[in-house]
Amino acid sequence: MSPRYLTNITFVLLGGFVIVASMAFAVPEFTWLMFGAGIAALALAAPGIAIVSRGSVQRGLDGLIGVIGAWTIVASMVFGGLAITWLGFASGAAFVALALIGLTVHELSSERVVHSFEVRTTAPEREIAGVR
Predict the structure, then answer these.
(1) How many Å separate Cα 52 from the centre of its chain?
(2) Phi, psi of 111 (to 5 degrees)
(3) pTM for the predicted model, two decimal places
(4) How many other C-beta atoms can be found within 10 angstroms of the C-beta atom of residue 15?
């Protein structure tokens, strides 16, 4: 499995958790869950920015996720009440959206398309066609 795929799936799950937690938990508990999610997002996105082989689009998405992760950390400590609930919800939705964009770009990359359409012939077919 590709590391790009694994990190994007992790961001989808993290964002989904933050979305659900924003509506399920009280503000004091959600504040710390949001803080932890921001740290996790920042920690997962930071190495991806430096890896050149991930491609410029994925590195850009990792950079955006890192910025949103940093904003999530700041927002969880600065805001309170209803504002933190909706800011956390928005951060989770942003994590999910950016990760889904990353998954889509990964699937549409030329290496995946070429691999999917590669034609293979078996030995009996090559003998019938006269190809060695």
Answers:
(1) 17
(2) -65, -35
(3) 0.79
(4) 24
Number of compact structural domains in the chain: 1
User: What integer is the mean pLDDT of 86-112?
Assistant: 88
Expressed as residue numbers, the domain containing 75 is 3-129
Calculate the average pLDDT of the chain.
86
Among candidates 34, 39, 8, 38, which has minimal Cα distance to 21?
34
Q: The dihedral of CA 38, 44, 48, 54: what is its sign?
A: negative
The structure tokens listed for 57 are: 């689009």
Tell me the chain's radius of gyration from C-alpha atoms.
Answer: 21
Q: For residue 27, with 0-12 CB atoms within 10 Å meaning exposed, 13-18 middle and 19 or more buried, which class applies?
A: middle
Report whether pLDDT(130) > 70.
no
Q: What is the CATH number of the domain that holds 22?
A: 1.20.120
Distance CA 36, CA 68 (A): 13
